[in-house]
């Protein structure tokens, strides 16, 4: 366990000082004419705001530091670990789906034959209007259900949550801040803070997703931002919502814009790319071409069914 | 049921340019009777061309050459498909006694390429260099180098490469098959775990 280098901002003294100020106000206010209140009011607002900002800044730095010191572990398989049941299998993951290509890649990474999903809940985040991603994920879940039936295992459960698109194609920049905020609102309340449906083993621990995965769409960055803010104000505990960003396989030699944002802001608990060239340029983890973990239509052999 | 003799086996060639923008170079190249003749000579019985927004001029181009379509072969153009992989690519898969292994000629779209990989189909990738930032060329070249697909830089070249493919009897998936199901080094998304001893740290930080 690494020793913490700086102390966190203590929360209790802040609350006590604010409480004292409020009480002092309540006592003094009735005795003063309203125009004499302006000065103390302005002073109090200033103190409160700077206090809050200092607290948030310190908390932000603390989170970043903790994340840097505890990066996600990229466990490699030894032999076919798909067959080894995980103990316990109960878990709750959030998968951020973007436009067609990203969704396909994400589902291919997931579709590797692993079927030990007893008590496991998958939540998919889909942008409003993205019918294609919805179709693809439902195909994946149907295939998974079939595979798990064949193997005599449980496929767990899944649900889909839609969020307002942060910016539609060709949407004027003037209205973008509003849709971006609407998007953030949806992410926070419809996706992160909304527990998995009843009937799932949704014990208190499973209230928030434990792992969140994204592979390129800008929405992923908004999700990471939302998680960071909620962790800053202690809504989401430190041991939930680990954000893992895996750059798209199509990025052969550079990071995407979203990838660069993650790389520079340090908002992801885990960051990896799928090509060694990009890994060496940016000094990040090379997870290899994870898309090729996917099961194939003809998994026993490449198609040599031609009769020439 | 067709008799299982070579002559009656179907063989599909799918050309796809993507749904959002057209790819004039490739679409024109595959709408030429000379291309159809080559396909016919290799036993293809159907050519399906997904041409996106170019559907109007492509259809009229096709109609103007409808007399040149070789007998025993069909040529169709269509704008988009709801699920290209299931509806169109699947037709290129071999079925014993009915269909031979087909061919996909495609723009360098990640989704299409990965779909073709999943189905085990040979694919000729033609980057659409007119697109912004030209990210497609890089991907196509990488695929060619790694042996996942055949890279071709123009529509015309794609056609000649298709011929080479058949001449060398390489109409099966390239030897450098990137399937990682047996790879001992592969990372599975289900194995990625948070680092460090989380629970004790949390306890320490909140009780400050």
TrEMBL record, chain A:
The chain crosses the membrane at residues 12-32, 38-58, 173-192, 212-230. This is UDP-N-acetylglucosamine transferase subunit ALG14. GO terms for molecular function: N-acetylglucosaminyldiphosphodolichol N-acetylglucosaminyltransferase activity. Belongs to the ALG14 family. It is a single-pass membrane protein. Heterodimer with ALG13 to form a functional enzyme. The keyword Transmembrane helix applies. Its main location: endoplasmic reticulum. The keyword Transmembrane helix applies. It is found in: Endoplasmic reticulum membrane; Nucleus membrane. GO terms for biological process: dolichol-linked oligosaccharide biosynthetic process. Pfam families: Alg14. It comes from the Eukaryota. One of its GO terms (cellular component) is UDP-N-acetylglucosamine transferase complex. InterPro entries: Oligosacch_biosynth_Alg14. Keywords: Endoplasmic reticulum, Membrane, Transferase, Transmembrane, Transmembrane helix.
UniProtKB/TrEMBL annotation, chain B:
This is UDP-N-acetylglucosamine transferase subunit ALG13. It comes from the Eukaryota. Its EC number is 2.4.1.141. Belongs to the glycosyltransferase 28 family. GO terms for biological process: dolichol-linked oligosaccharide biosynthetic process. The gene is ALG13. Involved in protein N-glycosylation. Essential for the second step of the dolichol-linked oligosaccharide pathway. Residues 13-150 form the Glycosyl transferase family 28 C-terminal domain. Keywords: Endoplasmic reticulum, Glycosyltransferase, Transferase. The keyword Transferase applies. One of its GO terms (molecular function) is N-acetylglucosaminyldiphosphodolichol N-acetylglucosaminyltransferase activity. Residues 169-188 are annotated as: Disordered. Coiled coil: none annotated. It is found in: Endoplasmic reticulum. It catalyses: an N-acetyl-alpha-D-glucosaminyl-diphospho-di-trans,poly-cis-dolichol + UDP-N-acetyl-alpha-D-glucosamine = an N,N'-diacetylchitobiosyl-diphospho-di-trans,poly-cis-dolichol + UDP + H(+). Heterodimer with ALG14 to form a functional enzyme.
